[in-house]
Design a protein that fits this description.
CATH superfamily of the largest domain: GAF domain
CATH architecture of the largest domain: 2-Layer Sandwich
CATH topology of the largest domain: Beta-Lactamase
Shape: elongated
Distance between the termini: 50 Å
Structural class: alpha+beta
CATH class of the largest domain: Alpha Beta
Amino acid sequence: MQVKLKLNARQQHVLWATVRRYVETAEPVGSKSLVKDYDLKVSPATIRNAMGFLEKSGLLYQPHTSAGRIPSDSGYRIYVDELIQPADKIGRKVDRLLHTQLDWEGWSFEALLRGAAQILSTLSGYVTLITLPNANQAVLRHLQLVQVSPAQGLLIVMLDCYGPQSILIQLPDLLGEAATQPERLERELQILSNFLNTHLKGRTLNEVTLLDWSELDQEFQRYAETLRQAVSSLSRRSQAPASTQMMVSGLAEVLRQPEFSESHQVQAIVQLLEEEQKQIWPLIFETEDWQSTDHRVRIWIGSENPIEPMKSCALVAAMYHRDSLPVGSVGILGPTRMMYENAIAVVEAAADYLSAAISQPA
């Protein structure tokens, strides 16, 4: 309810200036410093009155009786929702760095994500979290069947965003005769590979079960059930939670922030990011929740975070898309004392870059 509080222009300006000053200094903010540094053109007494109102409204608080004020989570929320715009200059810088330092034509997509995460963490000074694309939406680039023994074959699948995957299949018993003729078997497996590429190349893993096996020539129908089970297994495998498929960069940088000076805070954040990423996954990549809002960027501030170690943190995240379909996300994790306009611009620019990269034709 506090977030919906209506502030007049002066109160908004004082809240904006208080947040900016605290983000810059990490020190409680007094009225005199606001008058001096932000040219508010009013007396310190007037600023104190405005700060007193903001404190009573729960948007500022005093850590000590004699100290100045610092923003509360609710104060940051109004700052983010009503008082700022993304920093376009930072967004353009991110875009330039990504395009000049990364190569989406020559690198694997996973290498792109890793490089992007390093650039964002260095630039922002916060932890960068980038999820690998949702495997269920990975696009098939090539499929190949090879023989590994007289009775077994290997289905090798190349995806656009991941390394090769393979599934061992049992060759039909009816091939006993062909098994004594390696050249014939090799020819049949190549014909089957051509069939799979013709019908599946360019489709997502989510679509492989749509293949009409009746189109397979009659002489190869004995393979149909085995191959159907193999591609179905591949599709099911891709639907497993990918909570560990997340690039993390910049942990050392963010732990230098004064908010993480206590060892127990450091340990909790490190454990969360290194061992319990599955807890973060619903926050940074939950497509249904994302589609229910009109906002391109989602932001969790302090106590809004459901995960205990993150209650002193802010998470700013944006989806990247293959065409119009969300497949992954880019997030910035830092203290609530964050330059939100910069973080928003950073994740938006990175999401745009990755969307363009993953949507490139094969």
